[in-house]
């Protein structure tokens, strides 16, 4: 990705804001011209060698006040554009990120993504607020001021100053490639550092538990040193550039003194030259920040433009919940109520072996089916397909005869709920966590769900009942309570299909049995797909699918499979 591509992309996002940006540019040009005028009027008064008058003071104060007002307008309009553009960029970032989950957000990517979503987007502000106005005024103000100097004072002095001004404006761009590479290196190392800090914070218990804090700190220091080295190279380049610009501006004053024949003309030319320092220095200031802003924008764009693994085609084709799928898609694989997987294969990005390989099976509506298999056999992958956490590379998953790809994603995820093994509770109260998927649910529904998961006694002991705050990531509840709150949260949404992915694994046997019994008793029509390695807890009458290395090994009722002494029986023996 080069700077031109990033520039085009950023500009395409602010097209409607350009008139306001124009106001900022105009205000800046005028206020900087007034800055030159202020010095020239003062110099002219010195040249006139007359005592100061009220009229002169009035002029100076008037110019200063108008300049201040224009400066305010320039800043206000520029920042209004910048913050509106940043708001749009944030909205775009999250809108494009959501369909890329969970692939885009899992594991190490988390903290790195946060860096892109927050600080990288903030860094783009430099481009929106501090680039175009200084770039245009850096050319316009010297051009106008030197034209005036040439016409009204002495053309030779204007010609002497012009090359200095031109060189000082062009200089910041001469190290273009090196500066861009430097800015990208700094941005990448900053991202790597953020990812490392994120890992260490998430895994703080493991780090302390294994006593590896010193090794982790050393590694963190290493990442920090790499960032410092990249910033030093970048800073050295900036330092040399700024020094050269300063030398050029100083040199312009010496050149005026060297060629001026007349003291009065020299004073006016010096006033113009000094007045041009601010607009010309503005180029150096934004050039330093511009590559940083472009590098940050390039990282944001990588996320925004990434192809989502799961796409909601119904949003563009207009297919509704009962639709038969986007034009050209395969006809429904099955018309039976419940879930049908038809020759499903899934290989994760970067993996050679498929996690699921030509899996075909049927899970009847209203049944409590169980998927068992050893670790890594593909159980969770199968569960994730049911609510389109991932899409298969081949084959079709259908719900009640309709391919999942023909259902709007929102509707699908309302009908199919997942209770994961390691759920995350958000900061908020018990009630706000339970209402995540059903914001309109009343308290009675929440209490009902908590009773089903056997948390009614726990709730009764809480100081503020449903309004009791839960801390971020649910650290003040036990693992088993967290799993049950997550299960209750799924039930509050009143799904048709409930996927339990080892969702009761942290409960003691008696509590898990109570939760199963209450689920069966209170939700008789619910289709449950339970993923577990505890084959010994599966009742004889439950339909079972045994997976191994991504393939279906056995299907049938648990009791019958136990009797045959095959794969299910040996997994059961291992679980005991
Ligand atoms: N997000 C992912 N990216 C890459 N590979 C993955 C991902 N998730 C799972 N896998 C791989 O896919 C295979 C199946 O994993 P899956 O989690 O579905 O198995 P599982 O039977 O649920 O295992 P467990 O009982 O240990 O949870 C494994 O080899 C695993 O390493």
TrEMBL record:
Coiled coil: none annotated. Keywords: ATP-binding, Membrane, Nucleotide-binding, Transmembrane, Transmembrane helix. SUPFAM superfamilies: ABC transporter transmembrane region, P-loop containing nucleoside triphosphate hydrolases. The chain crosses the membrane at residues 6-26, 55-73, 126-151, 157-180. Residues 23-261 form the ABC transmembrane type-1 domain. SMART domains: AAA. GO terms for molecular function: ABC-type transporter activity; ATP binding; ATP hydrolysis activity; ATPase-coupled lipid transmembrane transporter activity. It is found in: Cell membrane. It is a multi-pass membrane protein. Its main location: membrane. It holds the Pfam family ABC_membrane. Residues 341-574 form the ABC transporter domain. InterPro entries: AAA+_ATPase, ABC1_TM_dom, ABC1_TM_sf, ABC_transporter-like_ATP-bd, ABC_transporter-like_CS, P-loop_NTPase, Type_1_exporter. Residues 311-334 are annotated as: Disordered. GO terms for cellular component: plasma membrane. PANTHER family: ATP-BINDING CASSETTE SUB-FAMILY B, ATP-BINDING CASSETTE SUB-FAMILY B MEMBER 6. This is ABC transporter. It comes from Arenivirga flava.
